[in-house]
Amino acid sequence: MSAADLDARDPLAGIRAEFDLDPAVSYLDGNSLGAPPRRVADRLDDVIRKQWAGRLIQAWDDGWWDAPERIGDRIGPLIGAAAGQTVVCDSTSVNLFKALAAAVRLQPGRDEILVDARTFPSDGYIADGLAGFTGHTVRRVDPVDMPAAASERTAAAVVNHVDYVTGRLHDMPAITDGLHAVGALAVWDLCHSVGVLPIQLDGCGVDFAVGCTYKFLNGGPGAPAFIYVARKWLDRFEHPLTGWAGHRDPFAMSSDYTGSAGIGRARAGTPDILAMSAVDAALDIWDLVSIEDVRAKGLALGDFFFECLDELLPSASVLTPRDPARGHQVSVAGTAAQLKALAGRGIIGDFRPPNVLRFGLAPLYTRYVDVERAVHGLVSVQTG
Amino acid sequence: MSAADLDARDPLAGIRAEFDLDPAVSYLDGNSLGAPPRRVADRLDDVIRKQWAGRLIQAWDDGWWDAPERIGDRIGPLIGAAAGQTVVCDSTSVNLFKALAAAVRLQPGRDEILVDARTFPSDGYIADGLAGFTGHTVRRVDPVDMPAAASERTAAAVVNHVDYVTGRLHDMPAITDGLHAVGALAVWDLCHSVGVLPIQLDGCGVDFAVGCTYKFLNGGPGAPAFIYVARKWLDRFEHPLTGWAGHRDPFAMSSDYTGSAGIGRARAGTPDILAMSAVDAALDIWDLVSIEDVRAKGLALGDFFFECLDELLPSASVLTPRDPARGHQVSVAGTAAQLKALAGRGIIGDFRPPNVLRFGLAPLYTRYVDVERAVHGLVSVQTG
């Protein structure tokens, strides 16, 4: 079937109109920065001109202060988290620090942290940064080897749900169970899976998770991240970033810190309302679509990408698995110069060293014609 | 002189038009949340519709990635920091954690952190949170007693430049010198002084400082904070929130962390561009005014507040010092019910437990008539 036919039959095709995208551009980097939902600009205008200007300080009582928990609970259904376990705040890196710091506190006597050796580097840097203060050993392990590598020495392990280079999707139930079998806590990084595939944090018994909102959730460049703390740990989730926003009664201005009874204790400083509001507006899209439909289209876009490569560029070195154990990207060996040449043709992907071209497939707005065009572009820059 | 006459002679009176404020409201809480600069809404619209939508991922290379340092250097002149020592990122609480963590690392063998006993509580919570991981003792000391209390055991001391309850301005040169005399590092919290009075961090030899941008800098609710690291410490500023944005070469995706050579090493996660852009737009006001003129008007507004109280409400219990060793607020004993009654009359201040009404004086938009109205309101709610 042609790309145009596939687009014509795509039940999500109409959703693209929700985004402010130039039709002449094939944007295939939604796995790095999501496209702007049209409603974000209007929402921010409203927050600034009506809430901030209109209500001034009083707006904090009109829903601003609780925005982190409220928006967290809007992300909950996408990650299989019942209400009250997810909060939007800080960056992914800062939230991972909280999660790992809390994890090692819960695991006295265990002196090791395992880190997905293929994860986005920031996760490893954060584990190293924490370990520099706590004295833990950080060991980098391929996720598939994680259950075998974990032992009674392992306090916690961080795994990225989707490999940011290859797009490989890791087995959350099996890895989580494997870690739990030796008493290690499982911390998942959902940056590359949230908003494209169904996730079952509660169902898998995951302990903690973090993720960003600026990729497939389209919350804006560097938008606030989220953190999930399983209900069973909420009472004992103790991290050192004990800013006033995590206090049980912040406006009492007590000199002693007592963490909030719920997920709010994962908060640190004053929430950034403009940034939060952009995330909130971007999440409205989930009133229109289901994660199952998004997942189905994402796999179909990937399958179509592979078919086009097989047909038009059989020499391509493809890093992304063809089976469904993958996220929503296709990675092909290539050079930074090729990426630049593609951009000149209106095809926007990204490059990761040393030699990977990544093409993100964001089902809310990526078209089959974008995939076809990317492969034609690759043919041109890799064989032309 | 009447309030109207004072407003008519106010050289900063015209600046109020830069803000989106209802003329019928006397907004006296700019020390908690600054008023919205008109240009912020337009700037965000531009960032979303032109930069994000127009350039997509490529906008990161067009100035987004370096925004934290660039905007930090715009704050530099307000805090007496030469270029390259200030960066905008994260929240004040998170930045204070970085500063204290780096300070205790620089001071092996010193087992104590002093915290301003009157500081905004979050600072103490953060010190306690860090100490819970490092084993340091946290001791709360009144800032005026800080030099005497510090000893060779003291790794660092955190002092708030302006007491958030009373408005007392603390003596930065004397306290900093006193701490240095025993080898302790001085960490200043500038939340309540930045944007209202001249600060000389470099001149005072301050080691580290943090501050927010959502009070007198008008960057928006919960806007990103800043952190200052004195040049002499930049090479050795090691904090544990080692996210990729602080890496010397983040896009190399190395598995090892090497901090940036400059102030960038104080960054952690991906910068929030929408939030940063609001701060950036709000800082444009400093192209029109000088901090010296702002300071002069702030003291004059305070003096006028005291005069009105003396004349109209001599029974008022005033907590703010009358000498110029004060920030830009006047605090009066009162109740939450009185605050609410004032709000019903269009006079917006805030309440801090157990019994303090605070009235912020933001010279960029506060009018003498606002002060007069506040005092008339106080007369009514406290004696009526």
Automatic annotation (TrEMBL), chains A, B:
**What does the entry list under GO cellular component?**
cytoplasm
* Cofactor(s) needed for function: pyridoxal 5'-phosphate
UniProt lists the family membership as follows: Belongs to the kynureninase family.
Q: What reaction is this protein's catalytic activity?
A: 3-hydroxy-L-kynurenine + H2O = 3-hydroxyanthranilate + L-alanine + H(+); L-kynurenine + H2O = anthranilate + L-alanine + H(+)
Q: Name one GO molecular function term.
A: kynureninase activity
Q: In this record, what's one Pfam family?
A: KYNU_C
Instruction: Spell out the InterPro entries in the cross-references.
Output: Kynureninase, PyrdxlP-dep_Trfase, PyrdxlP-dep_Trfase_major, PyrdxlP-dep_Trfase_small
* Organism this protein belongs to: Amycolatopsis xylanica
The subunit structure is: Homodimer.
Q: Which key words are in the record?
A: Antibiotic biosynthesis, Hydrolase, Pyridine nucleotide biosynthesis, Pyridoxal phosphate
Function summary:
Catalyzes the cleavage of L-kynurenine (L-Kyn) and L-3-hydroxykynurenine (L-3OHKyn) into anthranilic acid (AA) and 3-hydroxyanthranilic acid (3-OHAA), respectively.
Enzyme Commission (EC) number = 3.7.1.3
Protein name listed in UniProt: Kynureninase
Question: Where in this chain does the entry annotate a coiled-coil region?
Answer: none
What is one Gene Ontology biological process annotated in the Swiss-Prot or TrEMBL record?
anthranilate metabolic process
Pathway field of the UniProt record reads: Amino-acid degradation; L-kynurenine degradation; L-alanine and anthranilate from L-kynurenine: step 1/1; Cofactor biosynthesis; NAD(+) biosynthesis; quinolinate from L-kynurenine: step 2/3
Taxonomic lineage of the native organism? Bacteria, Bacillati, Actinomycetota, Actinomycetes, Pseudonocardiales
